[in-house]
Fold this sequence. Notes:
Helix content: over 70%
CATH architecture of the largest domain: Alpha Horseshoe
Structural class: mainly alpha
Shape: elongated
Amino acid sequence: MKLKSIFSGFLFFSVIPAFAQDLPTIIKNGEAKLAASNFQGAADDFSTAIRLNDAVTATYLDKMSKYGSLNEFQRTSSDMPDGFIYNHDLAIPYYDRGKALEGLGKQEEALADLEKAVTIDPKFADAICERGIVLLAKGVKEKGCMDLRKAKSLGNPKAKELFEQNACSGMSTGFVVSGDRKFDSKDYAGAVADYTAAIQLNTDSATAYIKRGQCNVLLKKYDKAISDYNKAIKLKPDTIQIFYLRGLAYNAASNFKLAFEDFSKVVRLDPNNYDAYIQRGAACEGMENFRSACYDYSEAIRLKPNDGFAYYKRGMANQDAKDNSACKDFKMAAAFGYEDAKSLADGCGTPAPPKK
């Protein structure tokens, strides 16, 4: 009986070390196995670490979800007034087990773990990069490249190298082409989604910013359009087209002063730009500076002497400026076939009936 008791005690003490390891030791051992390509052993260790962290992780994710649902006022009065702090340590076992499962060829399980790691720490560049690698291996190239791009922007050198190797930058062209088709069919919201995907794949694509800006103007989202044009200008300074398009957005948003400045830049770069004079004239009219508007419309007429629209616009500006030459402009506009000017021209110069 005594011998049995001693033997039982020996078994008890011999088992303790396997369960008494602390969490950092378990993770350290798993990472050593991972480095040695012992993927199954590593996966087992990280599974143990995940189980030990399970309750803490669940509480953390619940708190993250609740914080994400709060408005700005509620956040200031919560127990986290300075913002939610991501717990990177809780994400590590999922990231490491994801890599181990990837080594075992279990892509779906690896992807689930990497997703969990990124959910826990949305700025975990290594996990985002690895998720991108798995997605690329599964043939999901668009999402994979977007992950690599995001990880690259977070400073992950491996992602930067892989992003270029997988020709992710070139993939943005396909989204631009798709966006163009939707733009032509007047599906502007769909085009915005495609141009956004192009930008995500290649943040240096001024073309995608320009095209998305044009869609946003047509959707009357002028602030977003102007933001897109600002980004395009940073990529391609002194580009006439971008200044002109941003000027159109400012005019549409009734920000006539900034529109005037943009069209003035266009005119300085291209003194014979008919459209810029027309649009700058419209900006001047918006500011009720009718004399300046007349000057711009006169410049447009100089460039296109037979253009009825320019005569009509100058006539309207002269009329607002109480200038009698408006009548002559309406007649010229009508003579050059501008329909809206004909009724104005017909009533021009008719003497007022005598007072009785």
